[in-house]
């Protein structure tokens, strides 16, 4: 019996998606609830699993194709594979993910395996960043880029030696010069997430009158408080570490209560004042910037905030955030300090009316009660 494989129903805010990776090929056996294809939208990556045991019969939408909500993308034959045991074993051996190190349990995605075979790459040399130690297509592309850079660097290091050898042999410099290597370029299509981020940032910069104010805060009291209680905090809250973001979020919530217009959003010609604080915390990932939302952050403890931020960060890097987790914030905090930034002008996340940019904490001389003091 043939069963249709369809794209999931997208939320209203998502128009379409792109086939990112087929984890199975036609003719391969699949188990019920096994991941068979990833669909990338401009917000999150959606996983499509097999509804029953069977064999992937047909792929109607290939990797890179655009699909609509609920659109037919493939077909599955229900039941066990009709191929004999020998043929099944051969197919599985040919298509199974390649183990890098049995003890580590790392595997290779189909798209990545194809690149590895085409470029004759040593699998063990590729660093895996996927879930469960999976080597992704992006990992292989990064390895190729790094290898090209190393070859170019090695060629430059060899060149002076070649010149000396040529001089000793009374050859001309032109005859002995070693080429410095090709001028490597790599063209990689933007992910839907990055394209959407670029679109939203450009729209915000063109359609909002943004004003940035800069203020310095003495961080010494907070740093002293953190140093005093961080060990007790970690023991009390089952390993949750006391960071600075918990303090920043709680301070922002108190400020938003005192100044409701900063916690408002624009809807056409109306200003919507929110009686709650849903704080978006910007998280940087390899695929782009995402902003998961802390719901009712004012009602959460610092430990709950730190736990949630850590969970968001881990799932954002793995592409496991749900769409509802990155929608509906009333205010955003972004921390450029993790990149060493001292000052920047963060762009507002529409339809919000404000954003808070945190930056690097560093010591500097300040005037305190007529005396110079070094403070963070």
What does this structure look like?
The protein is α+β, with helices and mostly antiparallel strands and about 375 residues long. Helices cover about 30% and strands about 20% of the residues. The protein has eight helices and 20 strands. It has a four-stranded antiparallel sheet, with no helix packed on it. Strands 5-4-2-7 form a four-stranded antiparallel sheet, with no helix packed on it. Strands 16-13-17-18 form a four-stranded mixed sheet, with helices on one face. β11 and β12 (about 270-275) form a beta hairpin. α7 (about 245-260) packs across α8. The longest helix has about 30 residues, at about 135-170.
What structural keywords apply?
four-stranded antiparallel beta sheet, 376 residues, alpha+beta, 20 strands, globular, 22% strand
Task: Give the SSE map.
Elements: E1 2-6, E2 16-22, E3 29-30, E4 35-40, E5 45-49, E6 54-59, E7 66-68, E8 72-78, H1 85-95, E9 107-108, H2 110-119, E10 134-135, H3 137-168, H4 173-176, H5 192-207, H6 220-236, H7 245-258, E11 264-267, E12 270-273, E13 279-281, E14 283-285, E15 288-290, E16 293-294, H8 302-317, E17 331-335, E18 355-358, E19 364-368, E20 371-375
Parallel strand pairs: 9-10, 13-17, 17-18
Antiparallel strand pairs: 1-8, 2-4, 2-7, 3-6, 4-5, 6-8, 11-12, 13-16, 14-15, 19-20
């Amino acid at each position: 019996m043939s069963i249709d494989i369809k794209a999931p129903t997208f939320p209203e805010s998502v128009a379409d998606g792109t086939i990112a990776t087929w984890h199975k090929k036609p003719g391969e056996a699949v188990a019920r609830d096994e991941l068979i294809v990833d669909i990338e939208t401009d917000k999150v990556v959606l996983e499509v699993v097999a509804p029953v045991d069977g064999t992937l019969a047909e792929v109607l939408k290939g990797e890179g194709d655009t699909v609509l909500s609920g659109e037919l993308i493939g077909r599955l034959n229900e039941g066990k594979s009709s191929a004999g045991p020998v043929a099944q074993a051969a197919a599985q051996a040919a298509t199974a993910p390649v183990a890098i190190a049995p003890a580590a349990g790392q595997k290779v995605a189909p798209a990545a395996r194809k690149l590895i075979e085409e470029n004759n790459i040593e699998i063990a040399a590729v660093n895996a960043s996927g879930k469960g130690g999976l080597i992704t297509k992006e990992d292989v592309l990064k390895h190729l880029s790094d290898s090209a850079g190393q070859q170019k660097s090695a060629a430059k290091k060899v060149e002076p030696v070649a010149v000396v050898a040529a001089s000793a042999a009374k050859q001309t410099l032109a005859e002995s010069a070693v080429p410095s290597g090709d001028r490597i370029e790599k063209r990689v299509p933007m992910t839907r997430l990055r394209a959407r981020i670029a679109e939203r940032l450009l729209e915000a910069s063109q359609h909002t009158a943004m004003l940035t104010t800069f203020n310095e805060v003495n961080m010494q009291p907070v740093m002293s408080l953190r140093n005093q209680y961080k060990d007790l905090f970690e023991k009390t809250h089952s390993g949750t570490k006391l960071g600075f973001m918990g303090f920043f979020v709680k301070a922002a919530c108190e400020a938003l209560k005192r100044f409701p217009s900063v916690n408002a959003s624009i809807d056409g010609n109306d200003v919507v004042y929110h009686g709650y604080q849903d704080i978006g915390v910007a998280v940087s990932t390899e695929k782009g910037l995402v902003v998961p939302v802390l719901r009712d952050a004012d009602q959460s403890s610092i430990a709950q905030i730190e736990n949630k931020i850590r969970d968001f960060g881990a799932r954002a890097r793995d592409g496991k955030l749900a769409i509802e987790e990155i929608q509906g914030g009333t205010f955003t905090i972004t921390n450029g300090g993790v990149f060493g930034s001292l000052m920047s002008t963060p762009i507002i996340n529409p339809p919000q009316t404000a954003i808070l940019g945190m930056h690097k904490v560093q010591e500097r001389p300040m005037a305190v009660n007529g005396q110079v003091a070094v403070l963070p």
